[in-house]
Each structure stands twice: as structure tokens, then as C-alpha cells.
Amino acid sequence: MEKVLDKYSTLFDEIFSQNENTSNPYMDFPCKNQLSLTSYILNTSGINNYGGFLGVITDEELSDKTVRKIVLELSRAIDKDSVEEIKFLKAEYGNKKEFAIAKRFLDKKCKKVWDVFASKNKKINVPKNAMKSLGITNQPSLEFLLGDSLKFFEKDNGSTTVDIIMSILNNKNLSYDFEDIHKFLKNSYQKGQCKYNLITVSYLAQQLDYNRHELERLGVDDKTLKHIFNSLTLEEKAKVVWKKFKSLVQSGNTEVKKARN
Fold this sequence. Notes:
The chain has 13 helices and no strands. The chain has two domains: 19-134, no CATH class; 142-230, no CATH class. The longest helix is centred in the C-terminal third of the chain and has 27 residues, at 234-260. Helices cover 61% and strands 0% of the residues. The radius of gyration is 23 Å and the shape is elongated. The N and C termini lie far apart (59 Å). It has 261 residues and is mainly α.
């Protein structure tokens, strides 16, 4: 458990770092005088521009000559954001096991070069087209961002999950929206990985405008809903009642239209 907490603490620090001026020397694409993905790999992995050894190889995946060759060719295509070159290389090497290794390796490196946490308030430029064509991304998965919080911290009745959701939605370099997060929360609940605490449910209801049915799909019972409603201010209660009224009116209008048709 301590190892999990240490790992999560590191992630939490990255997401909520107060140093907004922190910059990653590899993150802007394309940008003069800054290293590309290829340059980053050459500078950190112990290989030269032709795939040969410069000393000790720091990445185990690159111990294979064919993998090194594919990695360098793909990274150069990514730096140019060239979908055509990626397609050509997939046709050339796609059936080789070394291609799959190279792809996983580049997925990891893209997350380092174009780090979404390094400048969360500034949109960074990334070669999205080439990465998408290859099937990799610089964005961490929602499982990576929220998984541990749901499994280990919801039961503590804290605000960890809410803080992370807010950070995800406010990060200009993450493309996840409310719908993506809702699907992840619902799937996590259905898999039995968590039971959402009052702080999380209250945030979903008030800030993200979740209705009763959406909350019920996340396993929120009537007792919890009543508890949250009773804890609201008069103004907040009025908003909830008004929203429910509008929902009923819209539902009624839909039924009328169906009847007319």
C-alpha cells in the first residue's frame, strides 16, 4: 500500500504542481532550437543517428538492431508529422514483432517529449496526425490519471478524485471531456472498483450538472442523494429544483411530439 501511495503522490505532485512556469525543453512541435522526438531518443538512449551503440544503451527495447532501425525511422516521420511516411513504414514493418516493440517504445517517449503536465495552462503543439496514424499518443490514459484514486482514495471520503477531474478538465493539453470521464467512472463502478463518496457525488451533481439517473448509474442511492440535497444552500436547492422542472418539461414536449407524429 505504501508503494501505491508513493507512486500516486508523485503523480499528484505532477498534476497539481504550483510552478506554472515549468517548461519541457522537448515539448513544442515544431520549434526551432528545441529537440525533436528523434533528438530526444538519440540524446537519452545511448544510440547514434544510424542505430549504432554510443556506449551503454539505457532502454532495453533498443538492444535489438531491427527495433532501433524501426524506432528511428518512425520517430523521424513523427517529427515531420507525416501520415504518409507512417503508413509506408507500417506497410513495410507492420507484420514484424519488432514493429510492435518500437511502437510501444515511442508511445512512452512521446509522453515524455510532449509532457501534458509540463505546461498545463499553455497549449503545446504536437504531431497529432502522425501519432494518431501510428496508434500512439502523448496523453496518459484516464486509468493512469484516475485509476488509483478510485481504487484507494474514494473510501477515505476525501476530494482527491474531484481534484484530479478538475485538473483534467482544466488542462489545455488533455482532450478528455465530461463524457469521457463519465464513461470511465461508470465502467469503474460496474467493475466493482469503487463506491463514490459524498464529495465526489456532490461535485458531479452540482458542478457537472449530473441528474438523478446519471448518478444512479454510478451506484448512488436515494439516501446519498437526499443527504447531498439537504446539505445544499437555498440557492443551490432552487437550481436543482429548476433543473428537474426543465427536464420534466422537455420530456413532456418530447412525448407530445411523438404522439403528434
